[in-house]
Amino acid sequence: MATKCCISDLPAADLKGKKVLVRCDLNVPLDGKTITDDTRIRSSIPTIEYLTKAGAIVTVCSHLGRPKDGPEDKFSWLLAPPVWENYSAKK
Question: Splitting the chain (91 residues) into consecutive groups of 10 residues, what average pLDDT does each group show?
């Protein structure tokens, strides 16, 4: 049986200059266009910061909500940058 690994198990030297795609479960609850619980966003910050500090080129992807008939403004990730900036600036 394989041993569980953590992001910190990857040596920082091996990440420098590498492109890393991080798929996060950031499907946060909304009240209209307001994020009501940003726990999932906050919990992804340490992983993203570890990778960027190690010199990796990080791309984060996720989805938000379940639009019925195509894209809807209320499910836009344009709501998230203030939250990302708030938590990543605290470190």
Answer: 80 92 83 79 88 92 76 70 60 49
Check residue 68 and give its pLDDT: 79
9 backbone dihedrals φ, ψ, rounded to 5°: -75, -15
Contacts 24+ apart (CB under 8 A), 71-77: 73/33, 74/30, 74/32, 74/33, 75/30
CA distance 73 to 32: 10
- The residue type found at 88 is S
Whether 33 contacts 74, CB under 8 Å? yes
Helix (H, G, I), strand (E, B) or coil at 22: strand
Q: Tokens 């203030």 correspond to what residue?
A: 82
